[in-house]
Amino acid sequence: MKAVLSIVFAFLSVISLAQKNGIQSGPMLGYNDMREVMIWVQTEDPADVSISYWSIDDPEKKGESNRVKTERSNVCVAHLSCSSLDPGTAYAYSINLNGTPLPSNEEYIFETQPLWQWRTEAPDFKVVAASCAYINEEAYDRPGKPYGGDYQIFESIADKNPDMMVWLGDNIYLREADWGTRNGILHRYTHTRSCPEMQSLLSKCHHYAILDDHDFGPNDASSAFINKGLTQEAFELFWANPSYGLSENGGTTSQFRYMDVDFFLLDNRSFRTESGIKGMKETILGKEQKKWLIQALDASTSFFKVVAIGGQFLNDVPVYENYAVYQNERDELIQLIDDNKIKGVIFLSGDRHHTELSAMKMKNGNTIYDLTSSPLTSTAYDHSKEENNFRVEGTHVGHRNFSTLSFSGPTDNREVLIEVFDSNGELVWDKKLGKEDF
Known about the structure:
Layout: H1 2-18, E1 23-32, E2 37-43, E3 48-55, E4 62-64, E5 68-69, E6 77-82, E7 90-97, E8 100-101, E9 108-111, E10 125-130, H2 153-159, E11 164-168, H3 182-193, H4 199-204, E12 206-210, H5 213-216, H6 228-238, E13 254-258, E14 261-265, H7 287-299, E15 305-309, H8 327-339, E16 345-349, E17 356-361, E18 367-372, E19 401-408, E20 415-422, E21 427-434
Parallel strand pairs: 10-11, 11-12, 14-15, 15-16, 16-18
Antiparallel strand pairs: 1-2, 2-6, 3-4, 3-5, 3-7, 7-8, 7-9, 10-19, 13-14, 17-18, 19-20, 20-21
């Protein structure tokens, strides 16, 4: 009994660290540009909240974000814009609650992107790619063995000191009790985001996200899901992407540049038709998003073009929710990339509860890649016996893990080092790709 009580008290003490001084979860660093950074925070109760920030090198350079009065109707979430910043500058910041700076056990810091173009070589940087974060809540989980675990993985990610992280969908898992109401959806987001082990990671690097079926609705949900407007609203509340959706098209599509790499964040749910419906053209991305993607890839001046999508793109086995189930659209996209000689494309995908790298050499000789990175804390599965004609040998991982992509080298000869780590941060495999590999 004493041992059990010790565990309980230790758990409660960790929770108190995550929910200290009126903060429910966060702060989380959102999008990051040269002149502006967005910071997300959730308070325990309605409050006036803002961010005070100052240059570490020149503390006299001070500023304050917009002020937000958090409301219970929006589960006390605030998006706080730190603007009029200097490029390539490190800032310390504090959270003001009802006009009073909150004490903190750690120093909060963000750094703007540098203005390197025409001045220096492109800066090196590291990206985390991961998906499928399930945080147990016994009252609402299915009976039996807990589906989630190894929450220390979030601390392992933080220890790698990434510059940014791309969450590849299933970042929460809506349960049967959740997806029917706005209250249930916001409860699930709040519960997941309050995970104590996640807090350091949230404040340590900049976060961008896409959604997949479990943060969009029920398992395998399509555009037929009636509450997709509610789950999009929740997605926008809890993430701080630079934009949401294409003009007049809706959805959560976005794009941003980090240093010298363009990132394309796709929405694979809002426009998705049910597979096999007679009289309807099957699609995952929808006409407008598909057209935008090819044009945006073609217009990109980056060598590396990173495309984030919830399900596997290259895997040619039409099972589960691989893009191969919608083979005509998958083939069309590959053909358009090939015909337009778009080079340097890396897809980042999740969903599958395993990790692997796939590579396809196209007719024109260029190669596209698909790094599937999954799961974070959900149950993992060994799919190594599944036929994937494009799997790179030795890259399948059937346990909880995360991936990093480190971009480095001179501007005209950049390379990316892909590394996969287990939940304790131990290296599983790595692979370096240079321009000649594309």
